[in-house]
Design brief:
single chain, 943 residues, alpha/beta, Non-ribosomal Peptide Synthetase Peptidyl Carrier Protein, Chain A, Rossmann fold, GMP Synthetase, Chain A, domain 3, 7-stranded mixed β-sheet
Length: 943
């Protein structure tokens, strides 16, 4: 008797009866490898993830083995969604049979047949912004493909430059209709698709700034993911969050916990909203992107990149690989990551190349798809992190690679994480028979602070490996060449020369440049360099070393090419030596029973020593005390062999214990934090509990926010009540017959009012110098400045105010009674007369209080000074007393009637006197005064 499947293939009933046993045998064999030889019985209804510890990458391996065992081609969606072996059994039964594989034949040597060149123009070299780039390409009348989006079934969709321009401008109109203002940030939590492109460019066309963040990927880590994204939203002060329907539940949680968000929208909602697009003024030095660096659990670091930065990086990388309109870039890299966003998409957009794109989950489900796409579409350029090349070199079966021809690929870049020499060799050896040429493989180096790329090797040179003495590097920080057969040898991959227009240097702790082959801190400079991190001045200051930027990496230089040895934060300080973790991680990951790519080596603080303890954290499913001890012994021997010293502690943890970034990098600092907190290896909470915890935290933040707003409202109401009462009392004081008495009462009212409002006023210096008269000159940041100086400065000092305040009769009468002098700012002849009056006042012994900026504005900054105060002081022989105000802008900013609590600092500087009565003397006095005020006002000096 026979049974027929939906695909039309036939299987005997005996086959169907044997299938469960065979499937269980395949799973048990995989588990034995994962658990160091331990036999784990498998039942058909076991939970694949929770009970058996099979994660997404292990599922990929399991799928390949099941396809091999049953001779079928399984849909990866069914494999990834399967919860139990029984679900996998159903997927096997429903899968079409695979054609009998033929022996793998090597691809003929030589170049692939060239494809006809596309008739495209040169890239827009005069473009100042990304908007100029897209508009230029769309205006060329090019109907060719800009992006081809691949789908698992083999279908694809095409996006042209004209399509993208129209969609982006419609999206910009919708965002402007929602109230997006120039400079506002918009977070994009979108998967790979056309929606990402039109939203990204639409935000730019609306004058906003896109902030890509990655959508949730692993349900088991959703709490950690959303907490990190909430920190990014708060850091970026994002006005809107754009997501797709699949991420709406996560987006709603983020909205609840991010008070800055004015709305959460899907791409479909934005398309439907409509509106009329108004062209925004966008220049080369406006921010085009805020790229948040991955891996930090502290204050997020958003790299600010302008249009000029991005275009400089794209042009330099294009020059390094000789990119052009005839190129086809094949990529599966996520668009929220700089290599996929800038290197693949924006680089292809600028050079007019075609981008063949697949979602990253399609690559993870079946890695051979990446190479298949290169073969099918004649891909000439591609890029990926090291782990992708390692998977293809070691994990994909030969029958997955039938018919793949890689002769068209002329540049395959390997970067974004440490590049391993063994991976490069394995990849080149395995895919030589598919036409891949060794010289096409390019280990590259870059960082978000430089756009994406910083150093590329010469084109068509191929990988260059430096074999050095590990002990000399660790102990003396010198890269001494060694023999590959030496037990102490280590291999370091060359990442090439700095990109055109950029520079690299290696320095020691004293910022002195070190000789060749000496290890030190890598610094760079160039047109792609960021100006700093968004709203993170402390991290921005730490980034710069004068005009050089700190990469956070260590390495050495040979013949101008850079060799990266480690991240500074990953180095372990042990006995005065630097210990690099990567070689040991790779060696431990290759042990049976240890999950490859899931090993972290880091240093932990030692209580009784200045050195750090070496900790090895390795994921394993090995059970049983004897087996686990044997694994520890093997790791300990490896530590001595690789590092020359034993590890202080070896932690064997359950799967998914090693924390990783969105791009798969090991988060060593976070693993160290959990280790020091004693939380390593704790079982992750279930998804419902994680979501509940996030909702509770979000609601708590909302309650605190509302409580804070209520408190601020009460403070504002109280402050304005006090000010109104004080103004009424000051009007009554103006009725007093003596001006000195009136001014003493006004000062007492000002002091009492500030005290009643709870505003802390810190005064340094001498606010009442003897032997006047004096000309007090202060910066002007807020309308509160009058009240503060009235309370602090001598009562007899009279203010100088702009004549606009005299328009209201009652206010004019009160101010005149308080001795205020009015000056004209716009009428030249009136200004001259006012200057004479003020000179006479000072000459007669009257002290004056000036705001030499003449006015105030909302934005911070010390503006240029008018000359009136300094001419009066120079000609009368009076000294100028500089006064720096700090904090009044925070209490009451111009254009806002919503005051906030803050500390106000008044610093009264030593008096300054002009050298003489002439104009140059007054100018010098003005400049010296402005310099003193600038030193303590805490605001930038504007020209």
């Amino acid at each position: 008797m026979q049974t027929t499947t939906e695909t039309g293939s036939t299987r005997t009933s005996s086959d169907a009866q044997a299938a469960p046993t065979q499937l269980v045998a395949v799973i048990e064999a995989l588990l034995r490898e994962l658990r160091g030889g331990e036999t784990v019985p498998v039942l058909l209804d076991d939970d694949l993830e929770e009970s058996l510890g099979i994660d997404s990458l292990s599922r990929m391996e399991l799928m390949l083995r099941l396809e091999q065992a049953f001779g079928v081609c399984m849909p990866e969606g069914a494999v990834q969604s399967a919860r139990t072996p029984r679900d996998l059994l159903r997927a096997v039964a429903a899968s079409p049979r695979r054609a009998t594989p033929t022996p793998l034949a090597p691809v003929p040597t030589g170049q692939a047949q060239p494809k006809p060149a596309r008739a495209r123009s040169q890239p827009p070299r005069q473009a100042q912004t990304l908007l100029d780039v897209l508009t230029w390409h769309a205006g060329q009348g090019e109907s060719g493909c800009h992006v081809r989006l691949l789908h698992p079934g083999g279908d694809s969709n095409v996006l042209t430059p004209e399509d993208l321009l129209q969609r982006a401008q419609r999206m910009a109109a919708s965002l402007q209709a929602l109230g997006l203002a120039p400079g506002d940030t918009v977070a994009l939590m979108l998967p790979t698709g056309f929606g990402f492109f039109e939203c990204f460019m639409g935000i730019l066309f609306a004058g906003g700034v896109p902030v890509p963040i990655y959508p949730p990927f692993r349900p088991s880590q959703i709490e950690d993911h959303l907490r990190r994204q909430a920190n990014i939203l708060a850091s970026a002060n994002a006005a809107f969050l754009v997501s797709d329907g699949h991420a709406q539940s996560a987006a709603r949680i983020l909205h609840a916990g991010a008070p800055c968000l004015r709305g959460v929208l899907t791409t479909e909602e934005l398309r439907a909203l409509g509106g009329r697009w108004q062209s925004a003024s966008v220049g080369a030095h406006d921010t085009a992107l805020v790229q948040y660096t991955s891996g930090s659990t502290g204050q997020p670091k958003g790299v600010v990149l302008t249009h000029a930065n991005l275009l400089a990086n794209i042009r330099a990388m294009g020059q390094a690989v000789q990119a052009g309109a005839d190129d086809t870039f094949v990529s599966w890299l996520p668009l929220y990551h700089d290599m996929g966003l800038i290197g693949a998409w924006l680089g292809s957009l600028y050079h007019g190349a075609s981008l063949v794109l697949m979602p990253p989950q399609d690559f993870l489900a079946r890695p051979s798809r990446w190479l298949r796409a290169i073969s099918d579409h004649g891909g000439t350029l591609t890029a990926a992190p090291n782990f992708a090349y390692e998977i293809l070199a070691t994990r994909v079966h030969d029958d997955e690679l039938q018919g793949i021809d890689l002769r068209s690929c002329r540049a395959a870049m390997n970067g974004s994480e440490p590049v391993h020499a063994t991976t490069l060799e394995r990849f080149c050896q395995r895919f030589a028979q598919h036409g891949f040429e060794r010289h096409a493989l390019m280990p590259v180096y870059g960082l978000a602070e430089c756009g994406v790329g910083l150093a590329f090797p010469p084109l068509r040179r191929g990988p260059k490996i430096d074999v050095i003495d590990r002990e000399a590097l660790h102990q003396r920080m010198v890269a001494i060449p060694s023999s590959a057969t030496d037990a102490r040898a280590m291999q370091v991959v060359c990442c090439g020369l700095p990109l055109p227009g950029h520079e690299l240097r290696v320095v020691d702790e004293r910022e002195a440049e070190v000789p060749e082959r000496h290890e030190g801190r890598i610094e760079f400079r160039g047109p792609s360099a960021t100006a700093g991190y968004l709203r993170n001045p402390q991290a921005s200051r730490a980034l710069f070393r004068g005009e050089w930027l700190d990469t956070g990496d260590v390495g050495y230089v040979v013949e101008g090419e850079v060799y990266v040895t480690s991240r500074i934060k990953d180095l372990i300080k042990r006995g005065g030596h630097n210990v690099h973790p990567y070689d040991l991680e790779e060696a431990v990951g290759a042990l049976p029973g240890v999950r490859r790519g899931c090993v972290a080596v880091f240093g932990a603080a030692a209580v009784d020593s200045r050195s750090e303890r070496i900790v090895v954290l390795a994921e394993t499913s090995v059970a049983g005390p004897d087996l686990r001890q044997a694994l520890r012994d093997r790791i300990a021997r490896l530590s001595v062999q690789v590092l020359g010293q034993p590890a202080d502690e070896i932690v064997l943890a359950a799967p998914r214990s090693v924390l990783k970034t969105s791009s798969g990098k090991i988060r060593r600092a976070d693993c160290r934090r959990l280790y020091e907190q004693g939380r390593l290896g704790h079982a992750a909470r279930g998804v419902p509990r994680q979501l509940a915890s996030l909702w509770v935290d979000a609601m708590t933040r909302r309650v605190r926010q509302h409580a804070r707003l209520i408190g601020e409202a009460f403070f504002a109401l109280w402050l304005w009540t006090v000010f109104a009462t004080g103004a009424a009392l000051a009007a009554l004081a103006a009725l007093m017959p003596s001006r000195p008495l009136r001014k003493r009462i006004a000062r007492a009212i000002a002091r009492a009012g500030l005290g009643a409002c709870g505003l802390a006023i810190e005064v340094t210096g001498n606010p009442a110098p003897a032997h006047g008269p004096w000309v007090f000159a202060s910066n002007h940041a807020s309308y509160l400045d009058w009240l503060v100086l009235t309370a602090v400065l001598p009562a007899q000092a009279c203010f100088v105010a702009k004549r606009e305040l005299a328009r209201w009769q009652v206010l004019r009468w009160v101010l005149v009674r308080m001795g205020v002098h009015f000056v004209e700012r716009d009428d030249v002849h009136a200004s001259v007369e006012d200057a004479k009056r003020l000179f006479d006042a000072v000459a007669s012994g009257e002290s004056l209080v000036y705001f030499p900026e003449g006015t105030l504005m909302r934005a911070p900054g010390l503006r240029p000074f008018h000359m009136g105060a300094f001419i009066a002081a120079a000609q009368s022989g009076a000294s100028v007393v500089p006064v720096s105000l700090r904090g009044t802008r925070s209490v009451l900013r111009d254009g806002s009637w919503w005051p906030r609590k803050a500390t106000v600092v008044v610093e009264v500087h030593e008096p300054l006197r002009a050298e003489g009565p002439d104009w140059p003397d007054a100018v010098t006095l003005r400049d010296r005064t402005r310099e003193r005020i600038a030193s303590a006002c805490g605001e930038p000096v504007l020209s």
